[in-house]
Amino acid sequence: YHRGLRDxxxxxxxxxxxxxxxxLWLIWLEPARLTAVHAADLxxxxxxxxxxxxxxxxxxxxxxxxxxxxxxxxxxxxxRVAVRRKLEEMVARERRGALL
Length: 100
Hints:
The protein has helices at about 10-20, 20-25, 30-35, 40-45, 55-65, 75-95. The chain is an all-alpha fold.
């Protein structure tokens, strides 16, 4: 994906950002593999606290494509609820012009 960028510095920065941010790795996972990620990994490794609104939208889009099985997966469901809440909060701030 970074090869599509004409600016080499921007491409390197994008590559570093994605590599250093495990939550962004979820964007490239197949939906079946995404639902297999353990709840502890979602909560700790794939924390979305440092994502901007564009990145958060991409993570949410990837999550919404997956067919989540809710039985015995309360941790995954709680993570998705938290991601959705954070996205809604950031979109509201964006609409108010309050994002930096």
